[in-house]
Task: structure prediction
Amino acid sequence: MAYRPPRLLIIPGLHDSGPAHWQTWLQGQYRDARRVTQRDPSQPELERWAERVQRTLEVSDGGSEKVEWLAVAHSFGCLALARHLADHPDSPIREALLVAPAEPDKFGVAEDLPHQRLPRRTRLIASSTDPWMSAASAARWAHRWGASFSNLGPVGHINAESGFGPFPIAKSWIEAARARSAAEQRPRHADFREWAFAV
Result:
């Protein structure tokens, strides 16, 4: 079976990510990307949002061919993704990128989130001037979740309003994650010429 690289799953935050948002730009870079669309993106309900992540994965399933995913979440979408990963240890999501998470305490959902290492390789990117979560809180949640942590400095909520249309860091993360996946698969899909000694 031919190797298929992991697909991109976009998980927006409150009010979805509009046409000028970097998540929309990123989605446009990958033809087979999928987007989690909440029924009401103005209502931050953690359990319902996490269930929507699961539903999107189910309807995008490759059938008999196993599909792996790279999830890129923003703001409240980061919390929904963390909850999804805690609820579904068998999730087909291979790696997760959390960008500018929303502060769980602002929504009263801190106790509903995992407080231990997430079951997938995770990176969290924050800002020192994000009105939705302080850099210190972001670092604490990254530590709890076992995520690598980056602070981009005074760049607000890392959204369209703070000047992020294209976001090359996210695309670089996807390409690196795909390269890791390909490297793991290589022994199973080795060129038959590598086995010439057996002839």
